[in-house]
Amino acid sequence: MDDDDDKPQLSAETFNILQQFYAEAAIKEELLAKQNSEKIPFLENWQLSQFWYDDNTIITLVDIILNSVSEGAHVALISCPSLYKHLKENSFQKNIKVKLLECDKRFAVYEDFIFYDYNEPLNLPQDMEKSFDLVVMDPPFLAEECLTKAAETAKFLTKEKIILCTGATMEDMAQDKLGVKRTDFVPHHKHNLGNQFCCYANFDISNKC
């Protein structure tokens, strides 16, 4: 009898699933390597209301984040993917852990990506509740429904601290939903927006940047 007859065999269906899994993993690894090595940015998708921060805003916000948390802190980024890479590259300074909650699956190449749709604000793993020392958020639309649902997510995730970047027109609602106040820091984007943009927080960030 051939010894191979005693070895477990994969069904054709299982084999195809494995092949697909490895193919997707290889594509993901290739895209990430290319994005890192060639510094290729993800282009804005305006249909998703994506407007990336400019470099100075990214640097300043990451400094604020790092100066607002303790060693080993957990930070969640909600719908602000342009912050992720610079924050991740500097996370070693305080050994912080970062999660990116985002609906754009292009960012799934990042190991910390979690798919997030603001229309389902609490459709997240239950063990994430109150597990983040700081939540930084930039809801994609300047609309009451969007901010209200994103606020649900932020309050579910955070232990306390929240930073919100959104339009000046949302100030009263932001204070009502999240208890945040406008700060002196003004975020800017690579492409100028027609709406005045502001940074809000529920703690003092004036000495953090």
Automatic annotation (TrEMBL):
InterPro entries: DNA_methylase_N6_adenine_CS, Efm5/EEF1AKMT1, Mlase_EEF1AKMT1/ZCCHC4, SAM-dependent_MTases_sf
Entry annotated with the keyword Methyltransferase: yes
Primary localization class, coarse: cytoplasm
Keyword annotations: Cytoplasm, Methyltransferase, Transferase
GO cellular component, one term: cytoplasm
GO molecular function, one term: protein-lysine N-methyltransferase activity
Entry superkingdom: Eukaryota
The protein's enzyme class: transferase
Enzyme Commission identifier(s): 2.1.1.-
Subcellular location: Cytoplasm
GO biological process, any: methylation
Described purpose of this protein according to its UniProt entry: S-adenosyl-L-methionine-dependent protein-lysine N-methyltransferase that methylates elongation factor 1-alpha.
Sequence similarity: Belongs to the class I-like SAM-binding methyltransferase superfamily. EFM5 family.
Protein name (Swiss-Prot/TrEMBL): Protein-lysine N-methyltransferase
